[in-house]
Fold:
Amino acid sequence: MARPRPRPMRSAHKKPATADNRNTTARVQRTSQESLAAFAPAKVNLTLRVLRRRVDGYHEIESLVAFADLGDDVTLNPGKALAFSISGPTAAAAGPTRDNLILKAAQAFASRLPEARLGRFHLVKRLPAAAGLGGGSADAAAALRLLARANHLPPGDPRLLTAAAATGADVPVCLDPRPRVMRGIGEILSEPVSLPQLPAVLVNPGVPVPTRDVFAALSSASPLPQHTSAIPPASRESQLLPLLEWLSQAANDLEPAAIALQPVIADALAALRGLADCRLARMSGSGATCFGLFESADAAAVAVRQLEAKHSGWWVRTAMLGGQSGMILS
Structure:
């Protein structure tokens, strides 16, 4: 009996797709009779508090995250054998193929479903590596969504969730990419948070910053910094200007440690803060990518042109964060 064809995906808003700037909804789809495709959106930490160091060396965090309408693309040709290839403008910086998190995710999935179909994955890499955007985690989560589709699993199947957690701390939040609060080491997730659309500019000054190095630098400092809660009040989470005001009182506790390792991050933040219409500039994750928030997409587009004119070697992109971002599986 032929399998039922998947229902069409729903999108919260429509706009022309480009190589880097895409709507994050409706991103698991068939590209041909034998191929499935998924979008892997960049994850941006709007806030990041480091709460404490655990005895096992990990740090517990509290972070409000949103997802962007730009990222990587992952395709899967379902089959028995597992294979992987990569291309794209930032593929060379993504590290050895054998270490890619897509393979780790597929192996974690297969260990939980020994009879599962796997297949050949191809990753088109557009996000910078080791950049604080959760690119590798987003790729792995996209791969797991594709494996779930290929094996007729519902999105909430516990084996899918445990495979995500086994792959990496940021993979669970990327599995269903909607704004949330992450806690613990990333494995404790809130229900989706209703955020307005946040026009943004993402800037990476071209230096990788491994997460482990930033946390190691943070561990050498004592005591840990203290800031306001990473959770916006309900009265401020859904409106742009009140949310921007609240975000301005929060912080990313990893910023000082990352800047100590790569001082050019401070230059990127200064460049964003020097823009007339930038309402907030902050580092995402463990860096080196920084983001600036604006009141309109037009203002963000003007900012990109200004930054590109002054810093031709930097990776600079417009993005829309929050809103109805998310993966809808049918």
